[in-house]
Amino acid sequence: MSLRPLTALRHFVTALTLLIVVLLGVEIWLRSNAAPSALIVTGQAPLEDQSLLVPSAVYHHELRRLQQTSHVTESGAKPIEIRINSLGCRGAEIESVPQVGVRRILLLGDDTICGTHVAESETVAAWLKKFFTQSTGEEVEVINAGVPGYCPLLASLKFQHDLSKLKPDIVILHIDMTDIADDCCYRSLTLQEGDHSVCSHPTLRMHPKPENPTIQLVRQSATASWLFAKTRQHGPELLSVSHASLAENQGFLWITDNPPDLRLQIDHALKPIRVMQDSVKQSGGQLLISTSPVLWQVVASDRAPELSRRLGITGKTPFASTFPFELLQSFCQDAGIPFCDASPVFRRDKAEKLFSKSAPVLSKVGMALYAREIARSLVELSAASRAPVE
After folding, report:
1. Considering the domain boundaries, does residue 350 fall inside one?
2. Closest C-alpha among 310, 286, 282, 283 to residue 296
3. Has residue 5 been placed in a domain?
4. Domain count, the chain
5. What is the DSSP letter of 160?
6. Strand, helix or coil at 105?
7. For residue range 139-177, what is the model confidence (pLDDT) as tens digits?
8. How far is CA 347 from CA 319, 342, 352, 366, 369, in A?
9. Which residues pair with 358 in a beta bridge?
10. In angstroms, rounded to a whole number, what is the distance separating the alpha carbons of residues 264 and 383?
11. Preceding peptide of 388 cis, ω within 30°
12. CATH code, 148
């Protein structure tokens, strides 16, 4: 009878040893097979785009400058060639001084504008250049300054600190339906002193205490990295987490037919637009605000069931509410900013082809349509500026 405790202890030690051996084997295998990185620069950008981003001490994060890479956004999809110039904008290098006789347009926004899931020639910026030139005959330069996970706050900081020196004639800021949630995540990281503001990435701030050795070991572990990546990808579905409790999905609450009271959050999210308006005027340009709908404002959620389930979209869709577009129009009217609302042209038959089924962004066809509407607004804006004042 006295040997039973020793037998149980021996079994426990054996099981523990086997567990450690298995974990070491998994760690070695994952390291040798290039396990996916757990480095999440921002939770507001797609997991597939994290490798394109780096932290910033001024505007939280940006595209990794001077990179040229083949980017895969979906399993089995054809790689997309991504090139980022020295200013952190997608595309070729930009001359510091605009060419004489060439109108320079700067396009700011998030994933929809950057377009990491499409070729450079299929982005909103590329289509905008084509449509505007066809309509006016003018030579134009369109700079794609979209960054995954951006909102008006970060776009305003990016322009003030980095892109105003380009002296664009027109600055177009795309307002996305996710910008309310994005602003909530970044605003607490914003530091302001006088008229100057920065949004420093947490990893670039000074840490008062050295990191716990155990935490550091976990961060460096390939096994932990793999588990973290899988949990982030599938966790909300496996745990049945309500979409209302996820920061990345709270922005979609304001597009529903019965939204909660988000007036304070909306006010905070739109306030940087007025700051950008002043910055653009000081640089000699004009600001234009544009927006487009997301899938659930135009198409039923069953057209993209996996995406809808992942983002926690519930209730009857498409949502009938036009509140976000009316609010943006009212805001721009009060601020004296030209506004392009592309939502009416998206509400038509077979509209599902205008949206991606794997992410809350526009498809290739949707990007072309959106660019056409922006070009139309620019043509009208140009005509109005040339009209004689009575």
Report:
1. yes
2. 310
3. no
4. 1
5. I
6. strand
7. 999 999 999 999 999 999 999 999 999 999 999 999 999
8. 12, 9, 10, 12, 12
9. none
10. 37
11. no
12. 3.40.50.1110
